[in-house]
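Lab notebook: predicted structure, single chain.

Context: the supervisor wants predicted structures on file for every construct in the current expression panel, including those that have not yet been purified. This is the next one on the list. No modifications to the sequence; it matches the entry in the shared construct table.
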Amino acid sequence: MKTNAARILESLKISYELRKYEVDEADLSAEAVAAKLGLPPQQVFKTLVARGDKTGVLLACVPGAAELDLKALAAVSGNKRVELVPLKEVQPLTGYIRGGVSPLGTKKKYPVFLDESARQWERVSLSAGVRGCLIILAPHDLARAVQATFCAIARW
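Prediction complete. Output recorded below exactly as produced.
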C-alpha cells in the first residue's frame, strides 16, 4: 500500500521504509504503536495539529512518550498562544484521521515543527497517513521533505 506521504518521499528521492501494524481502536497512542513495532517510544513521533493566534494552523511532531509544550511551540512559531485544534477539525484541515496524521501530504501546506530530539536517532518513525502504517526515515530527510524547523517542543 502506497500512501500520499510515501509518494511525496519518492518524488523527492528520499529513502524510507513502510511498516504496517495491527490497529487497536481502543489505544491509538504512539506508545502502543511503538510497542507493537518493537521501537522505543522516543523514536516514534506523533503529529499534532495546533493553531497559533497569529500564524494559524501548524503541525508539531513530538516523540510518542512526550507531551507537546504549547508555550515552547508558540515561542518558536511566532505566536503568543498556541492550542491544539479540536479533534473534529483535524480531518477537514489535514485530510487525515486521528491516529493517522502525517506531516507529509496534508491538504494544505502547514509549517512543521519537529522536536530536536529527532536528531539523536538515525531514523525516526511517524504516521504514513493512515492508521496501521508508519514511515521510517532519517530525521534530516523528514525535515527536508516538509521544510520542518527543529526545535525544543517536547515536554517529558
